[in-house]
Amino acid sequence: MRKEITWRQLKGLHQLYEGKSTRVKLMSNVFVKNVLYKQRHLLKYKDGNIDIIVKNTGFNAYFEEHLLDQFEYYAEFFQNAGIEISARRTYSQEILETLILIHKNRETLRQKLSTPRIFSSIFFENKDSKFLDGKPQLKKDILTILGVTKFPRESAKDQQYRLVVDCLDPKYILLCENIDFLKDPFEFRKNHIELWYLGGNNTKKLYEVPIDKIKFPIYYVCDWDFHGLEIYTRIKEILGNKGKAITLIVPTNPLLKPIKSGKHFSEWKVESLSGLERNAFLPGEIQLIETLINSNKWVEEQTIDPISIICEKKV
DNA sequence: CAAAGCTGCGGAACTGGTAT
DNA sequence: ATACCAGTTCCGCAGCTTTG
């Protein structure tokens, strides 16, 4: 859906939309080179100067239809956050969405700010904890968003937050084990789903959530591995004590992955049902868990589509 | 002569390699 | 692993050139 384009490139295209030419090196972007340049012929190099790109007729119409909203959305964000709108920023869309998520939760985060390394591993978990180290500008921008001058050098281990992506007229709450859904919340909003993230493994935070914050049916989506499901049993117990029920999102056509793939480390235990509390699960859920244990596989959260599942259930 | 176009340069941001 | 450094990319601007 989203085109893979950095802010610098998007701004270059916008420069072209407003003016006539740009010196931004746009052709290194796959989408610009293949779609805009080769297929649609909306761009060309200026005669005798490959450093300059000019537009052909139709470019403005295309930009207005497909890219202008995006540009304005991010430009408005930079403005609200007090960051200059500059093509110096080479941020990918993933980073832009992460910054927006940080911006939305800046009040919470400011009070519980942790070290750069911890911060990095929470928000850029598919990079790594050192991601921010070599990116001084990104670090500065995050600090600007949070309205603080520096990250603390050390912080207590339990520094965890409840991040929320609000939506108008919420009807459901979806608690996510991982942060990724919160970075791409558009479809969730459209479907009246409010997103919560409790910081990895930090079920304790749930104790402190006032009962009246949970006004809507609450769902939980997680990796279907030992770790994710074990957290679910704890969450279910905590909410149960508060008199609330929670529904586990069961993937409909799960994509099974080998336990040892990539950076995945959660392995099944040898005990019955891997030592998970059997009573916490419905028969259908147990069936899938046993299938996974027997084949030594897991299901990644990002391959699950919670929207269709949540919205079907209301019928 | 004014406006638009072009070029070169300084420096910001980042990357990848090397030493410790 | 971590820290440092040298190299690369390329924006943004200033000042120069072209054009109508």
Brief rundown of the structure:
The protein is α/β, with parallel strands linked by helices.
Q: What features would you describe in this structure?
A:
The model has no long low-confidence stretch (mean pLDDT 81). The chain starts with 6 loop residues before the first helix and ends with a helix. The chain is built from 13 helices and 10 strands. The chain is globular. The protein is 41% helix and 12% strand. The strands form 3 sheets. A 5-stranded mixed β-sheet has the order 4-6-5-7-8. Strands 1-3-2 form a 3-stranded antiparallel β-sheet. The protein has 315 residues and is of the alpha/beta class. The longest helix is centred in the C-terminal third of the chain and has 16 residues. The chain has 3 domains: 63 residues, no CATH class; 69 residues; 151 residues, Dna Topoisomerase Vi A Subunit, Chain: A, domain 2 (3-Layer(aba) Sandwich), CATH 3.40.1360. The protein binds a DNA duplex (20 and 20 nucleotides) through strand 3 and helix 8.
Properties at a glance:
315 residues, alpha/beta, Dna Topoisomerase Vi A Subunit, Chain: A, domain 2, 3 domains, five-stranded mixed sheet, three-stranded antiparallel sheet, 13 helices, 41% helix, DNA-binding
End-to-end gap: 28 Å
Query: What is the count of structural domains?
Result: 3
Number of continuous helical runs = 13
Total DSSP E strands? 10
> Which assembly state applies to the chains in this document?
single chain
CATH architecture of the largest domain: 3-Layer(aba) Sandwich
Order of helices and strands: HEHEEHHHHHHEEHEHEHEEHEH
